[in-house]
Amino acid sequence: MTPQNSIYLDYAATTPVDPRVLSAMLPYFQKTFGNPSSVHTYGQQAEAALENAREKVAQTLGCRPKEIIFTSCGSESDNLALRGLALAARQQRNANHILISPVEHHAVSHTAQQLAEYFGFELEYLPVDRHGMIQPQVVAEHLKPSTALVSVIYANNEIGTISPIAEIGAVCNARQVPFHTDAVQAAAYLPLDVNALHVDAMSIGAHKFYGPKGIGVLYMRQGTPLLPVQTGGGQERGRRAGTHNIPYIVGLAEALALSQAESPARTAQLVPLRNRLLGQVLEEIPDVLLTGHPEQRLPNHASFVFKGLDGNALLMALDMEGFACSSGSACKTGSPEPSEVLTALGLSRSWALGSLRITLGHANQPSDIEALLKVLPPLVEKLRKLG
Amino acid sequence: MDPKKVVVAMSGGVDSSVVAALLVEQGYDVTGMMLRLWSEPGSEAENRCCAPDAMALARRVAAKLSIPFYVIDARQAFREIVVQSFINGYTHNTTPNPCLTCNRHLRWDFLLQRALASGADHLATGHYARLQATPNGVQLLRAVDQHKDQSYVLHALNQAQLQHTSFPLGTYTKPEVRTLARKFNLPVAERPDSQDLCFLGASDYHAFLVRHAPAAANPGPILDQHGAQLGTHQGLAFYTIGQRKGLRIAAPHPLYVLQKDASRNALIIGPAEELGQAELVAVNPHWISGQAPEGPFRAQVKIRYKARLESGLVTPQPSGSFHIRFDSPLRDITPGQAAVLYDGETCLGGGTISSTPIPNPPE
Asked: Closest chain B residue to A382 measured between Cα atoms?
C-alpha cells in the first residue's frame, strides 16, 4: 500500500501545505533570503516580509502586531507561555499556583509538571465533565490569589471537544489571572479573535491549517509579564531569540489568512461527512462510544472507543486497508497505556485502549466515508476476536 | 493474481532486513512488523532488539524497500510471559532460556496472529534454519551455516505455526547475508550480531534478579561433595552448573559448580573430574511432528544453544518426559535449558532439562 492510493483521515495530526501557501513561501528561500536583523537592503526586504506577515496574523487574531511572537511550533508556543508566564508571575507577585485541565496536550501538561517537579510550583488540575469540557464556573471555584496562570485547551486534539474559552477567559480576566489557551487544533476551524475569547496568551501551529511544519505563533497580550525562555539576540522584542525563519513565517501568515477565510466553506463540506460517519459507526458497531462532546466538537473530528479492542492493531489494520487514521494523538510506536485524556473522562482501561480518531480535511469526499464504513465494522469484529 | 502477502518480523538487524529485501525481490507483497518488547526502566536505550534506534533502523530499511512497517507493542505480554518466566526459572534454581519463551509465545503467537489477521499468508523471520514440507507435515532442519544454526531456539514451534512460517536465510551463510545486505544497499550491513539478552541491556542478570526477585539473594553454604563447608554463596540463582569463576574460594585446583541443592540451599562444588554427567531427564517435551516418537532411539542432542551436538540414547518415559544417556559424560548439563534432539539435519523437538536429580538411572 503506497500513500498514493490510501485515504488520508488524520488531518488533526497534520495537513498538506496548500499550494498557495507554498508559492507564497518560495521567494524567501533564495531570492529574498536576507536576515531581517541586518541593516542592508537584503535585511530590509526580509524584515518587510516579516512585519507584513506579523500584521497579517495580527489582523486575523484581532490584536496588535507586537503581540505576535513567532516560534518554531505549537509546542514551543505552549512551552513559552507556561514557563514564561509562570516564572514571571512568581517573580513579580509571588504567585505559585498553576491551574490546567487534565485534557491538555502534553506540550502544556508536561511543561506544567516540570514546573511543579523542578521549580516548586503547585500544580492543580481542573475537573472536567464526561465530555472533557471545562466549565467556567469550575475555573472560578479553583482560582486563588496565588494563581500564576490558567491554561485550558480550546479544542481537544484527541476527543475534539470545544471548551467555552471566552467564558473561562472572562472569569480569569475578572480575577486578573493570565489565561492561556492551546488553540493548535482549534485554529483550522474556530474563531480566533483574542478579545472575543478573552485570552491573554494563545498558541497556534501552522501545519494544522495547511501551512508548513516547524512554525508557530504565541499571541501574548501587551502588558502580560513574560520571562523569555529562549535567550540570545533581541528578536521578537526580546521574548524569543533566534534568527527569523522568514519563508515559514510568511507561510504561516498566508495559511492562517486562507484558513480563516475558508473555514466556513470547509466546515459546511465536512460536517455532513463527519455526522454520517458518527451516526453509522455508533449504530452499526456494538460496544462503541463516542468520545468528546456530541455537538460542541471540532467540525472535522470523530473519535470513538471500542470496548475490548487493541486500538493500535486497529490503526495498523486500517492502514493496510488504505485508511490513514489515528488513535488520538500522533504517536507512532503506540503505548500499552491508555491515554490520560480518555481516562480523565472516566473511561476504564478496557474501553480506553480501543480508541480511534478520524479527522477529515479538504480532500475528503463522501466516497471516502462510504469506503471506510464498509471496512471498519468487519475489521473491528475480526480484531475483537484476536483479543 | 495478486502477489502473496507476507509479514517479515523486522528487528533493525542485518538478518531480518535481508529477509525483507529478498522477499521484495522475489515479488512478494511484503509488510514489516516489529515487536516492541519490554526493557527494564532506564535500560531501554541499550535493548538491542527493540530500542528506539533499532526501530529507527528498521523503519529506514522499510522505507528503502518501499514497504509498510508497523511497530506492535508487546511490552506487557513480554514482561508478563517472557521476563516473568525468566525470573521464575532463576528463583527455582534453573537457568532458563528466555529466547525460547519469546519465540514460542511472542513471535509465533502474538506476532504470527497479527500477521495472519492482516491477511498475510505467512510470517518470515531472519532465523537461520530450514523448513521442508513433507507428506507428514513440515520438518524443521538445521541451517546450512552450522555456526549460525538457530533451530535450537525454534524447536518448540508446532505444525500450525510452521505451516505459516518461512526462514529465507536457512540456505545462506552469514557472510553471504552480509554481502546481500551490501548488495541491497541496506543501512544495516555492518551492524554487529546481537548477543546479550535483549531486556537486560548493559546490566548483568545477577543485578537484574536482585532488583526483580530480591528473595533470590538468599545466601547459603558452599559445600564440597562430602559435605564440608568451603564458603558462602550469595543465592543459588546466581550460579550455573559448570561455573568456575566467582566462587571466591581459594583452592589448589580449579573448582566448579556441580549441583544446586535447593533442599539445603547449598551449592555443591568439586573438581573438573566430578563435573561430567552422562544422563539427563527432560520434561515438558515438544515434538515438531506433533507425535511423540517411539523409543528408545539414538539421536544427536544439543543441551545449550551454542553447545556441540552430542550422541546419545533417548528413552521416552511413560510420563511423556524423556531420558537421555549420552555416549560420554557432558560437563554442562544445566537444568532449565532445553535438550533439543536431532535426527541428522532434522530437528525432532526437545524438552526442558529437569532439575530433579536422577536417582536410579534406567538401563
From this structure: B117
